[in-house]
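We store chain and fold; thus.
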Amino acid sequence: MTKQLPLPTRSSVFRDDEPVVQSHPLLPGAKPPVFSERECWDLNGVLRKPVNQHPSHMRVPFPGLAPAVNLLARELAMIWFNPRHPALLARGIHLADDPRVANTVRQRTTCLRELSVFGANQQLPELVSRWATEDFHRFLAHHSNPDPEPRLVDHIVVIKALHRFGRALANGGLEEDPWPGTSATAVLKLPVNGPLKTPVVKPATWFPLVRAAWTYITVFAPDILRALDRWQAIEAHAEDIKLPEADRRLTAWLADPASRVPARPPSAQTGREGPVHWDLLARMVGLDADRRNLFSTTSSTGRARRASVERLVVAGRVQHGLLPDLVEVDRPDGSRGPWHDALLPRQLGREATALRNACYIFVAALSMMRDSEIREITKGSVVEYFSTPAVKSTKVKLDADLPVKHWWIIEPVARAIELAEQLSQHPELAFASVPGRDAETLFTSKDVIEDFVDHVNRRRNITGLDEIPPQHITPHMFRRTMAMLTRDFPGSEIAVGMQLKHAATRALANRTTGGYMEPASSWARHLDNAVSERKFQRVKELFAADSRGETIGFGPGADRMREAFAAVREKAAELRATGKAQRGDLRVEHDLLQRTRFSIRFGTLNHCTMNDDDPVGAKCLEDAVVPKGHRGPLLDRCQPSRCANSILGPEHLPIWTAERSSLNRLRADPKLPANRRALLDAQLNEVALMLKKAGQ
């Protein structure tokens, strides 16, 4: 056990009165804490806080630490905040000019507190820098049972800092690094290229969740916005007037044929109209104060006014809530009716919040932006970038300068962002508080998802939306799921790499992008079905072109395809002649086409019609070593000019024609070596054989 030593009383290299943040841009009027503050360094209002972080992430607390440990924690925090501080340079400590953010410093000082607690339980020296190397090894062993926790990386960073910054610490640092020349991940034996641990959103949850969000954006949003405008107009015209003036306004309101009495939802048991919303009616008349006196049941005038209003109810001049006509939807019980029973002011605030949540979920699901980047979107950020819709936002991760970047988006995402802007009460942010809430009130992204799912499931009997199965969902899971969904589309790896912003690190080859695009077993059936449906759609297009007499391709494979299409038309004609199918119904041909055993793989240079069960004539399989379990062609050995399964489509001709022109230009060079000319001749021969199929 390490022997307790008396602590020196040297003063710190940092002055008590100097600000704790000197390397960060400060907010206007900021008053940063000074080094002598021993309880907490609160940087709210001092440094820019990411929108998606809680104010507590901007506080670096030092409670419950012994005086020497408290000083050590403040010194380490000071170094991380100011890596190029003159006091450090004077002592030969040269660090990269990359100050740490408040949340990182907060987490590391928490690690120091956990080390101190372990030391107290093990009767180790109060100051961690007085521990021996074996003490740190015991700490790791204690927290690595049975496996090391990834969060211990920060603990090791702190321990190594005690050695690295030793010359700048008042009570000295560690004389030696417990793990010299070894990184924190290597110490814990964590895999550098381990699998991405972010799970995907399950398809059973993904589909109803995204559909519900889109339904709110496209179907329910117009009603919500109209109701908000109506309520804001009512509040704007409400005044503190006397009862005689209120009585006169009520009389004029009752005489207007367009007036509708606001009522609460009808009773589910009786189906009768709900009671009149007297408070809302008084606001609609224009009364702001003493609204209850207008329809008081304790006075004869109040009862008389109520009777006049109730006569309108009997006459059917009623609306549920603020609007008389809401969009109708089909409900789970087979009925059809308004998507909301009554958009009253209180319910309106709830639905406005649900609409904001729907916009956030839709953007997170379909844009592949990080949560922090979505939350940083400001009003007016939807622009056209290189003739394509894009959104401007601040790229936060790994960028100290916080540059503004453009993310290409689809039109529905742009619509969702613009709708969120309409709802936002914040002067700058697109995703913020809704009308009726304080403009500075923000939200937690994870809570937004949970709240929307709960709201949809509770009201689905009215809205007609599908039930969303419960699943723990974080914003980052949307990013992972969409990257996985796009992996099978041509060119998607480039697009996903650019969108995930990792392409610059190692174009198309880095681990992180690959991890995002890794397939998930829960989606296998859906993706296979989607690919099959797209393939069948293209087969239907070829069938329609062949039926119109158009050329669908050249070569033996195209001849077999035309024979199969002719057989389908012949069978369909037979079914119509016998009355087993309706005349003029294309579904007959499509059903027969789907049952026809015709294999085709669509390609950029040609199509392949090889039958997996009978691969006769497949040149790619001749004299080839076929991997165990492999079915289908070996695409890297394709010989389209010589294979009986190859189809040259009309869309392929321009590519082969351009290739012939390019090869001829290269061959015309008189300085071309003989071996290079022979290679070009061989390539030209292959191209000529391919074009010969098309009669060119």
User: Anything to note?
Assistant: The longest strand covers residues 388-394. Residues 424 and 477 are 25 Å apart (CA to CA). Residues 203-237 form the longest helix (35 residues).
